[in-house]
Design a protein that fits this description.
The strands form 7 sheets. Strands 7, 8, 21, 22, 23, 24, 25, 26, 27, 28 and 29 form an 11-stranded mixed β-sheet that branches. A 6-stranded antiparallel β-sheet has the order 12-13-17-10-19-18. It has 548 residues and is an alpha+beta fold. The protein contains 11 helices and 29 strands.
Length: 548
């Protein structure tokens, strides 16, 4: 009969073996099993194998050098042999049936699902008879070996039936990983900080520069940087306070009787003639003709006439009910004492009220301060348009203020008034970093051989403008700064020279460099006093010590 030989792995599980049986078309299958394989270490696995083989109608033969495994196979009714081609040992039918009965599972049962998964539930144990059969299986080969003069087989512990863990292989792998990690950390983790102090001399450096609104970028050889032309045009309006005062109350009115004892001829007083009583001035509201006096021998009898009058100014002090009036226009003449007036009807209706008005002084002061106020406001509006880090030199801006106009005239009643005028701002701004970089690069190019600027960059420069043409959008001038010059060091060459050196060797090399007064090294990790082998992990910081 044709048969199929299947070679099993030492740790191949029962589910995998059963699956391979299902996929094999031959009815007779020889399973070649390594010693101490998981399959032949458990009578339960062999029993399951036997049951599945019977269900599939296949005849299974176990071929293995493991004597205990062959004995267990025979106990469950499986044929066995020690090698391929050897005569198959057929188990006794009774032994197989007895083993069938003796497998018991207490408290829990073994479930073999069609999903090809086997679940062992807690508490499953093998019955006492099965233990005896397994013990007999262990004793039988022992007796056979003793008869043949061989060394008795060692009795296996329960742990021997479990798959063996490859301790040696695991240990080798762990050692390799640790070694690789150590090499990686040794090469790539260490970092070295180098602090060098270089003798330096302070020197004032100057360079010409041009700001051009048409430039697209920094041009160090030409000394040109881009400019930003800012333009603002608007009407500026400022408010000012009125301080003038004005009486706007009502004037008292009434009537006065004028008496003429000056002449027998009538006297005419024109409208607006002033009449004064106790310092209060009133004015006639119309012309009045006062008849001359009459003298019938008993003395002159004055001619009289009434005329309406109004107070010369508002105020309730002009409200009087009696009094005599003089005409100041006749002062110094005979008429002054002989042309008088008395109250004909009481003066009433006078009232007082003071309001604020624009005075001539207010206007003069506002016009004087407006120009300065307008310039400040239009300048602020222009500077508000500066971009990040831009600056405007005072000489690089132009401000104009046009003709002023006022909202009120002098004498107008108001608390506040405004002054307005058109104003314009034009300025050429530049980026401070652009100028600093251009000047720094220019200074570096002028330091001469063997020298270097020890500052990493310029934070600021002093600027002097000598040409401003805002119409073309160009300004030019001179930039100067005080910098420290010292011996030139090639950092890349220094890193290459000390890479991988001990601390002492690296310090000796660094201190021997031209211009270096001292060198300090620090390491990470701190216990590793060796310069990193990777140049990018070496960080050099240069400080200067001014030459005395």
């Amino acid at each position: 009969m044709e048969h199929k030989i299947l070679y099993l792995e030492i740790d191949e599980e029962i589910t995998s073996i059963i699956d391979r049986l299902r996929k094999t078309s031959e009815a007779e299958i020889h399973l070649v099993v390594p010693k101490e394989a998981a399959l032949i270490q458990s009578i339960v696995n062999l029993k399951l194998l036997k049951r599945q083989a019977d269900n599939l109608g296949k005849q299974i033969q176990i071929i293995t050098h493991d004597k205990v495994g062959r004995n267990l196979a025979e106990q469950v009714g499986l044929h066995s042999a020690s090698r391929v081609g050897e005569e198959i040992k057929v188990p006794a039918k009774e032994a197989a049936e007895e083993a069938e009965k003796e497998i018991q599972f207490k408290e829990k049962e073994l479930v073999v699902a069609e999903t090809k998964e086997i679940v062992f539930k807690k508490g499953a144990v093998i019955g006492d008879k099965e233990k005896q059969a397994a013990q007999a299986a262990k004793e039988e080969p022992e007796e056979r070996e003793q008869k043949d003069g061989e060394k008795p087989a060692k009795k296996k512990r329960s742990s021997d039936f479990l798959p063996k863990f490859p301790h040696k292989k695991f240990a080798i792998i762990v050692a390799a990983v640790v070694l690789a990690l150590g090499i990686f950390l040794y090469i790539f983790v260490p970092m070295t900080n180098v602090r060098l102090k270089v003798v330096a001399q302070k020197q004032d450096l100057k360079t010409d520069f041009t700001v051009d609104k048409g430039a697209s970028g920094i041009n160090q050889p030409a000394g040109t940087i881009p400019g930003d032309l800012i333009s603002v045009n608007q009407t500026i309006t400022k408010k000012y306070q009125a301080t003038g005062k004005k009486e706007v109350g009502t004037k008292a009115t009434g009537s006065v009787t004028i008496a003429n004892t000056y002449s027998t001829v009538s006297q005419t007083l024109v409208a607006g003639t002033r009449l004064v009583s106790n310092g209060l001035t009133y004015r006639t509201q119309s012309d009045v003709n006062v008849p001359g006096y009459v003298d019938n021998g008993g003395g002159p009898v004055a001619g009289t006439a009434n005329v309406s009058v109004a107070a010369d100014a508002p105020g309730d002090q002009y409200n009087i009910s009696s009094g005599t009036f003089k005409i100041p226009g006749f002062a110094g003449t005979a008429e002054y004492d002989k042309m008088n007036g008395t109250v004909a009807s009481a003066m009433i209706g006078g009232s007082s009220k003071q309001v604020t008005v624009v005075s001539a002084t207010d206007i003069a002061n506002a016009e004087s301060s407006f120009t300065s106020d307008a310039r400040s406001e239009i300048t602020k509006d222009g500077q508000d348009k500066l971009k990040n880090n831009e600056t405007l030199n005072d000489k690089a801006q132009k401000i104009t203020v046009g003709t002023m106009s006022l909202s009120n005239a002098s004498g107008d009643q108001t608390d506040n008034f405004t002054v307005s005028a058109p104003a314009s701002f034009t300025g050429l701004a530049y980026n401070k970093d652009d100028l600093n970089k251009m000047a720094y690069d220019s200074f570096k190019s002028k330091t001469g051989p063997g020298k270097q600027i020890l500052e990493d960059k310029l934070d600021s420069v002093n600027v002097t403008l000598d040409n401003v043409d805002l119409t073309k959008g160009i300004i030019s001038g001179e930039a100067d700064a005080s910098l420290h010059l010292g011996a030139k060091l090639d950092e890349d060459q220094v890193k290459t020279s000390i890479s991988g050196d001990s601390q002492q060797k690296a310090e000796d090399y660094l201190k021997g460099l031209d211009g270096v007064s001292s060198a300090e090294l620090s390491f990470f990790p701190s216990f590793l006093h060796q310069v990193s082998r990777i140049k990018s992990h070496i960080y050099i910081k240069t400080e200067f010590v001014e030459q005395q």
